[in-house]
Amino acid sequence: MCQGHLLCDFLMNRLISYTYLILWGIIRWVIVRIIFLLITIKLVVIAFFYFQLPPMEILLDARDRGSVTFKDANGINFAWRGKQFESSLRSETISPALKHAIISVEDRRFNRHFGVSPRGILGAIRINLSEGRGPFEGHGGSTITQQVAKLLCLLQSKDRTELQCRRPTLARKILEIPFAIAMEIKYSKAEILSIYLNRAYLGSGSYGFEAAAQRYFGRSAKDVSIAESAMLAGLLKAPTRFAPTNNLIKAQDRAALVLKLMKKEGYLSISETNFALKNPAILSANAKEQTGGYFADWIMLDAPKQLTLSTSEDVIISTTFDSKIQLDIELGVQEVFRKYVKDSSKSEVAVVVMSKDGQVRAMLGGRAIDGGRGKFNRAVQAFRQPGSAFKPFVYAAALDQGYSPKFLIIDKPITLEVKGSRPYSPKNYTGEFLGPVDLTEALAVSINTVAVQLANLVGLKRVRAIARDFGIRSEIGYGPAIALGSSEVNLLELTSAYAGFLSGGRSIVPIGWTDLRLRGEDTMLMSVNRNNSKQVIDQYAAGALVYMLREAVVTGTGKRAQIDNWEVAGKTGTTQGAKDAWFVGFTSEYVMGVWMGYDDNTSLEGVTGGGLPAEVWANCMTRILEGRKPTGLPMISPEEYTKRGIQDDREMRQDAGNDQLSSRSLFKRFLKSLFND
Length: 677
Known about the structure:
- The protein is of the alpha+beta class.
- Among the domains are: 86-289, Biosynthetic peptidoglycan transglycosylase-like (Penicillin binding protein transpeptidase fold); 645-677, no CATH class.
- It has helices at 5-52, 96-106, 118-130, 144-151, 162-166, 170-186, 189-199, 209-217, 226-234, 239-242, 248-264, 270-278, 285-289, 293-302, 323-340, 391-400, 439-444, 448-458, 460-469, 491-502, 539-554, 612-625, 638-643, 646-657, 662-675; strands at residues 67-71, 77-82, 84-85, 206-207, 314-319, 348-355, 360-364, 408-411, 435-438, 513-518, 524-527, 569-574, 580-586, 590-597.
- Helix 2 runs parallel beside helix 9 (226-234), helix 4 packs across helix 6 and helix 9 (226-234) crosses helix 11.
- The chain is elongated.
């Protein structure tokens, strides 16, 4: 028992004090050791990351695949695919304005901290919570060094996707700190900034500021102006949303904010800021036009896949593309559609232009002319019935066998027995029959019954062979309806076949690219073979066919394709039910094919190949030929054709090699003796 209250209170107080001291000592002992343990762990983690970090140069390229840059016929870049990158940029060589813009908008204390900014992290957490988000959602408060840690995925990119690396989590934030410190120990500030400059994604497939500067402004990041620097730095927040190729106004507004931050940090004077605000950055001519997208997509499929779609290198492809001709066809199509097609119409169009040697100069795969990247390319991916645009193959086969352009066939109702199918009775578009007509008139006004009869005379097998030899790679049917274009083709192969008619009857392979190289190297990896052409029909037969196609434009269904002072040859095509309308034709310099129709095979109301497609053709070709001196077509008139004596020569060769033609040849000789051809 305690004697006296004062003594009891004293003893109790001493006991409590000693207890508190003991407990505090234990707690302090634990805390100190926990802190020591955490520091030890942190140092171990920092050391681990330090020794994991490779030399700076290895970290510059962030891509998992390479890129493809397309050069036009004049050697100017016009399109890009894949992930663009240029590793030559360093923080020491970058434009000072761009360096200051990046630091101003991303990390104004970059040169003063040691990789982490506690004030920035706490400020970002406060802002995120005040805006109703999670503490690590939205603003990150990360330094440039921490952003590099995120871009490097903490060196775990092989085990994680890019999305997983960028996901804001507490664990990632915690690991970013020792990783950032390890980088600050391993690398200089200049090296850390160099990694950032090369790995940051800046929209439109561009990785790094050098690739972005070239993509948007056509110049090096070493030479960009203050306004351009501000626009590039502004892309870091949201590359796709602020990309100037997507929305230039939005990119300029973002750049204005960056300029004000640069002024606040003392990097710009008032006059420099005002000048840059009044003269915002704009896209280079090539970036602004966004032209040639359909063409580039075609080359990505046409060139070797290991150097395009699957490339791990940076490939430069030289092409036959002509940006001026591309603009001509885009403007021509827009004008015709604006005049004759309702705004609500969903009808589509495709255009291909090539020189007579097969070098494709321009391509439009649809009404959407904003580059075409990734869009359905109707010039090469759509397979549609060509209708009467296929008939020249029938006439080519006939001319090559010796038939004269003046050879007479009776236009009359006919019915053909087709093995394994119902009898075939072709009808003319007009529903009328003209009686005896020569081949020139029959082709010009597109008489169906004559084309079918002629195909049977020369042989359907021969017609198919001629079409294949001229470059039709699509499957061709076997019935008599093939004479009227019942087999599906694409616009590119049909246009290149017409180039063969113009080129003296030789097969023409469409050429889009000429050579491939790796960026920075002069050695050519691959070039296209231009020596694989062969003679399909006799050059005199080809000259006669050009004459007949010329008559189709002068007197026949292609009248709307006429161009002042220029000789034009071509053929219209309209399929059954008017689901497709075509005009393919040429001058002495260029061959152009035009297709119109609906993607869902809806019928075109009141449209035939001799209508809007011929109108589009004439409008585009007039623009292309502007300023050029007219030259004539390599035609041979029926009279000249007969004088060449080609008929007798052809008959002798065909008679010797094909017994089925003997009766026809004897009958021809009999008619010739009576009526002199």
